[in-house]
Amino acid sequence: VVHFEHPALPGRLSLDQLPGVEGGLARKEAAGRDDSTGFFVWPAARALSAYLAAHPELIKGRRVVELGAGAGLAGLTSAALGAAEVVLTDLAGTMPLLQRNVDLNA
């Protein structure tokens, strides 16, 4: 489980990802398949989530779509910051992990 915290968020977000990933950071080669990139929390997702948390006015009350959400960190951050609606999308094989992460943070 990977955790993301920021003072602007009401609490800590927790995200599950593919087992065996060191330090919670993704490496495409760790999965060995091109279609498995959605099973990780990528450094870019952390950076985007930190930026959004630092600028919640960009999100509050807005509709957000995260295309290729993977583990869903940016979308879950948007929901925690008060987005009016958040839609998370990814490949069908990634959706069970994404749903688990939504449930973890409901």
From TrEMBL:
| Domain of life according to the entry | Eukaryota
InterPro entries per the UniProt record, alphabetical: Methyltransf_16, SAM-dependent_MTases_sf
- According to the record, the signal peptide region is none
Q: What is this protein called?
A: Calmodulin-lysine N-methyltransferase
Q: Specify the species.
A: Alexandrium catenella
